[in-house]
TrEMBL record:
Listed name of the protein: Quinol monooxygenase YgiN
GO molecular function ontology, one term from the record: monooxygenase activity
Signal peptide: none
Lineage, top ranks: Bacteria, Bacillati, Actinomycetota, Actinomycetes, Kitasatosporales
Organism encoding this protein: Streptomyces prasinopilosus
Residue ranges constituting the ABM domain according to the UniProt record: 1-67
Keywords: Monooxygenase, Oxidoreductase
Pfam families assigned: ABM
Domain of life: Bacteria
SUPFAM superfamilies in the record: Dimeric alpha+beta barrel
Length: 94
């Protein structure tokens, strides 16, 4: 299993519009082969921060969905990012 997790920063005044513009991407991802979960959410404390969480079955599923990456106007709004890819070998209840 692959987990993509981290955070993006956009201008605080633009965060709501940025997230609204991502709703179709979230829908597409959740319908994509191999997507186990996909969420982008406003952080509760930092006004310009967006939390990123994705779970995929395989690298191939992730690569098929990603294609060329984010739309250019969305990418232009991102001021900074800290997002990592994690390979998970086992899952168990907390």
């Amino acid at each position: 299993m692959i987990i993509i997790a981290g955070k993006l920063w956009v201008d605080a005044a633009d965060r709501g519009a940025y997230l609204a513009g991502c709703s179709s991407i979230v829908e597409q991802a959740r319908g994509a082969v191999g997507c186990l979960d996909f969420a982008l959410s406003a952080d509760l404390i930092e006004p310009g921060r967006i939390n990123v969480y994705e779970r995929w079955r395989t690298d191939e599923d992730l690569a098929r969905f990603r294609g060329a990456g984010p739309e250019s106007d969305q990418a232009a709004q991102i001021r900074d990012a800290e997002v990592s890819k994690y390979r998970i070998s086992d899952v168990e209840a907390p």
